[in-house]
């Protein structure tokens, strides 16, 4: 695999994102992998399947941590394109390899992260844009 400048920039951003975390990274397990059903079983929810396509499988889940969407993707690129589009609508995202959990509450995803690992990403905050428009 050829290393490009954008790849190096992405690695640098990820490395900097971990700075100042107060040591919480040690508590995060290795990122889980598997099918939608396997990931759902890890966090003790029964998935209510909403989308079952070749590119994406998506379900609504609810467990003791809260309600969230769990999605798995056929490709890394498909996942990143989906996340980039979804982030325009705000929200909180727990991102693993070829899967994502989406929740309204950061606390829900923080709890899921204790089991699934992954990285938390934030969507765009549009609250500053409300007003006289």
Brief synopsis:
With about 130 residues, the protein is an alpha+beta fold. The chain has helices at about 5-15, 35-40, 75-85, 105-115; strands at about 50, 55-65, 65-75, 90-95, 100-105, 120. The chain has 4 helices and 6 strands, in the order H-H-E-E-E-H-E-E-H-E.
Topology:
Elements: H1 5-17, H2 36-42, E1 48-52, E2 56-63, E3 66-73, H3 76-86, E4 92-96, E5 99-103, H4 106-116, E6 119-122
Q: Between the first and last Cα atoms, what is the distance in angstroms?
A: 48 Å
**Portion in helices:** 25-40%
State the order of secondary-structure elements, H for helix, E for strand.
Answer: HHEEEHEEHE
Please report the total strand number as a whole number: 6
Strand content: 25-35%
Biggest β-sheet: strands ordered side by side in the sheet: 1-2-3-5-4-6
Q: Based on the structure, what is the oligomeric state of the protein chains?
A: single chain
Molecular shape: globular
* Number of helical stretches of at least 4 residues: 4
Structural class: alpha+beta
- The mean pLDDT is 81
Which segments are poorly predicted (pLDDT under 50) over 5 or more consecutive residues?
3-24
Largest sheet: 6 strands, antiparallel
Rounded to an integer in angstroms, the radius of gyration calculated over CA atoms is: 16 Å
């Amino acid at each position: 695999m050829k290393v490009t400048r954008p790849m190096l920039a992405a690695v640098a951003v990820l490395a900097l994102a971990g700075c100042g975390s107060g040591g919480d990274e040690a508590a995060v397990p290795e990122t889980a992998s598997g099918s939608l059903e396997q990931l759902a079983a890890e966090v003790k929810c029964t998935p209510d399947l909403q989308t079952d396509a070749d590119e994406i499988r998506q379900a609504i889940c609810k467990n003791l941590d809260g309600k969230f969407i769990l999605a798995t993707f056929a490709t890394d690129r498909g996942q990143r394109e989906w996340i980039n589009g979804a982030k325009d609508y705000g929200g909180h995202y727990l991102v693993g390899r070829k899967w994502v959990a989406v929740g309204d509450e950061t606390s829900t995803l923080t709890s899921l992260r204790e089991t699934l690992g992954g990285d938390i990403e934030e969507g765009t905050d549009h609250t500053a844009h409300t007003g006289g428009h």
